């Protein structure tokens, strides 16, 4: 963008500030559309007279064409009647800005989906800023982005209750449905709340197990902050960096899947992987707390992962899949050989 040079004797700092304001003002006007001088003044913290001066300078700014001269089509222009009569700024011609690259509709939709997920994180309280950014992505893409909605696994109320207990140093109690389908009442000293992908977890000292345990928030019911402070011994509890820790009671499960899909198991830290035949498929071993964990794994990689052993784990997955299929097929049971 070209802007008129300052007169001899004017301070370079003032000229630099003027150019910075112009470089900020033009994108703002393009993004906002028709806007009043007063609104611009409030947004930038300037006087209305200063805004009027800057707007007048915009009409003298641009990029020279092939003749290296500033002709009418090479300069910004505004609707002067609106500006002089109604104190409204309406750009009628802009240069260079339209030539900047734009996100495709799919790129904008992907970014908007990511921002929707960020809105759910507890540290992103300033959702207005994220909403503004999503609106800019929608307006600035080369085509209207596909409407995407990111489902929230946790309703948010449970997370707020657990976060309140954590910040106030109080115990929290709730009913918990574990992966085996057992319902238990838990009293926990909360130590940390964190997320993995779309799932939220509470790590804390469980008074029932008398050890540190990890709880998924979407498996809690009727959570509440108690009137009792956290136990004093929790001060000495050192949480490991990783969310899930191996135990001597873990089960080794042998799986087979396409070699190209092996990175999808990275969060489970696969061990003893070996290719099969030509290398198209791979067999690997996972250590899981119990066979019921495989239900979720197989759901996420349906048709990709085959559970080989132990037989108990194969049966758990088969029974779970058969129960799900029965919901659609009535009394017709699938004929599958579980080995």
Please sum up the structure shown.
This protein has helices at residues 12-32, 37-44, 48-58, 80-86, 105-119, 127-140, 157-168, 293-300, 311-329; strands spanning 35-36, 77-78, 88-89, 91-93, 170-177, 183-196, 199-206, 211-216, 220-229, 251-258, 271-276, 281-288, 306-309.
Report what the structure shows.
There is one protein chain. The chain has 339 residues and is of the alpha+beta class. The chain is built from nine helices and 13 strands. The protein has four domains: 12-99, Arc Repressor Mutant, subunit A (Orthogonal Bundle), CATH 1.10.10; 105-140, no CATH class; 157-236, SH3 type barrels; 251-329, Alpha-Beta Plaits (2-Layer Sandwich). A five-stranded antiparallel beta sheet has the order 8-7-6-5-9, with helices on one face. Strands 11-12-10-13 form a four-stranded antiparallel beta sheet. A two-stranded antiparallel sheet has the order 1-3. Strand 5 and strand 6 (183-196) form a beta hairpin. 15% of the residues are buried. Residues 1-13 and 332-339 have low confidence and may be disordered.
């Amino acid at each position: 963008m070209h802007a008129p040079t300052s007169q001899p004797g004017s301070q370079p700092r003032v000229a630099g500030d003027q150019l910075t304001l112009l470089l900020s003002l033009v994108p703002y006007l393009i993004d906002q559309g028709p806007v009043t001088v007063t609104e611009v003044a409030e947004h930038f913290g300037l006087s209305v007279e200063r805004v009027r001066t800057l707007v007048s300078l915009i009409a003298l700014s641009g990029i020279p064409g092939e003749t290296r001269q500033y002709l009418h089509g090479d300069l910004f222009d505004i609707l002067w009647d609106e500006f002089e009569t109604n104190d409204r700024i309406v750009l009628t011609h802009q240069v260079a800005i339209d030539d900047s690259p734009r996100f495709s509709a799919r790129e904008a939709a992907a970014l908007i989906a990511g921002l929707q997920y960020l809105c759910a994180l507890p540290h992103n309280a300033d959702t207005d800023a994220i909403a503004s950014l999503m609106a800019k992505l929608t307006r600035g893409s080369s085509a209207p982005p596909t409407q995407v909605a990111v489902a929230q696994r946790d309703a948010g109320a449970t997370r707020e209750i657990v976060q309140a207990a954590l910040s106030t140093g109080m115990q929290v109690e709730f009913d918990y449905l574990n992966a085996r389908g057992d319902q238990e009442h838990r009293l926990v000293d909360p130590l940390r709340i964190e997320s993995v992908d779309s799932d939220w977890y509470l790590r804390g000292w469980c008074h029932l197990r008398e050890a540190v345990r990890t709880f998924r928030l979407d498996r809690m019911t009727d959570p509440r902050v108690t009137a009792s402070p956290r136990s004093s011994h929790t001060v000495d509890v050192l949480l490991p960096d990783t969310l899930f820790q191996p135990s001597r009671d873990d089960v080794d499960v042998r799986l087979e899947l396409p070699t190209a899909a092996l990175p999808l198991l990275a969060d489970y830290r696969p061990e003893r992987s070996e290719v099969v035949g030509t290398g198209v498929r791979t067999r690997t071993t996972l250590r899981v707390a119990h066979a019921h964990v495989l239900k979720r794994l197989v759901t996420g990689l349906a048709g990709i992962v085959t559970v080989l052993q132990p037989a108990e784990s194969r049966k758990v997955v088969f029974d779970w899949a058969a129960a799900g299929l029965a919901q659609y097929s009535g009394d017709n049971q699938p004929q599958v050989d579980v080995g």
